[in-house]
Amino acid sequence: MAFNKPVIAYVPDLNKYANKPGLTIDYETEFPGTVVKNEEQLVKTLKKGDTDQGKRQRARFAKKMYKFSDGRSTERVVKLIKSIMDNN
């Protein structure tokens, strides 16, 4: 995701992990790429390559999950460290 490259989730055991202990997202609808459950789907997806739909999925996911990726993360961390040091 950090480099906006296509991603594939190869999860033949998705149903098992979706129930115990559970996932933080609904992989079937929210994963920022193609979700495949067997080797045949994996090969087909690899051959297809990146798609416009994949690009849209990554953009939507990044907007939802990375709201602080504005190029100012280091500045915020430094301010936090300074404020902690000033309070001690």
Automatic annotation (TrEMBL):
It comes from Ligilactobacillus acidipiscis DSM 15836. This is Uncharacterized protein. The lineage of its organism: Bacteria, Bacillati, Bacillota, Bacilli, Lactobacillales.
